[in-house]
Amino acid sequence: MQPRSWLPERLEGELVVLLRHVPSNLAAFQRWYSDPEIARLNRHESGVMRRDEIERFFSARVVGPDTLSLAIHVQATGRLIGTCAFSHFDGDNGSALYHITIGEHDAWGRGYGTEATDLMLEHAFERLGLHRVGLSVFSYNERAIASYRKSGFVIEGTLRQAIRRDGRFWDEHEMGILADEWRTLRRMRSIDREPADNRALSIAAGAAVGAGPGAGPAGDQPRR
Ligand SMILES: CC(C)(COP(=O)(O)OP(=O)(O)OC[C@H]1O[C@@H](n2cnc3c(N)ncnc32)[C@H](O)[C@@H]1OP(=O)(O)O)[C@@H](O)C(=O)NCCC(=O)NCCS
Hints:
single chain; alpha+beta; Aminopeptidase; eight-stranded mixed beta sheet; 38% helix
């Protein structure tokens, strides 16, 4: 597999647009990854990354040749708010791991992260032809878990008390979504957007082929 050739120039959503990172985004990375709250939410090690670590990470994993990392910009204003990426491509088994960080606190909880994840999953399943996307998340990161569930991820397993933070141990969840589950979710969302009369017909048709509302991802329905 050749990840670089898979990098799109842009993935267009309604709330956000994902663009290739440019070298000047390093300044934002330095700010985001030296933020203790961000470190608490997405870093196994306690404490923040050093400036030189952030710079190495940016060169190797964000703008490097073997990454699929995209910048998250607000669609309406163009503001850079975060980054999302796939890592650990496994061509033999059609899988990858997903990562997302919205570094700007005032951009949390506005639907940006969920839409960015939706765009990345569409790219993974429709254009890269992946079969499975996984991720890991700390149990106290309830906003992230809610957002991942909305995108169709389900908790597949738990590493019990794997994280020591705030003076106690916390679980780390492994979440995943399969290509078929994502397609079912997409079909259900498009049915939700249809006018009521069409919706009844679509649900009836979907039920006939086993794709109705009861056939969601692995028995764990996303919240919307
Ligand atoms: C995790 C992250 C990507 C989510 O993106 P976001 O844009 O903030 O999330 P969204 O607004 O799309 O969705 C968040 C959902 O969680 C819900 N939520 C927010 N805070 C919550 C909380 N404390 N508990 C439970 N649910 C919560 C919101 O209500 C929303 O659901 P709704 O739309 O049904 O109301 C983003 O917050 C982020 O990058 N945070 C910092 C770094 C991080 O945690 N990265 C992930 C590491 S695994």
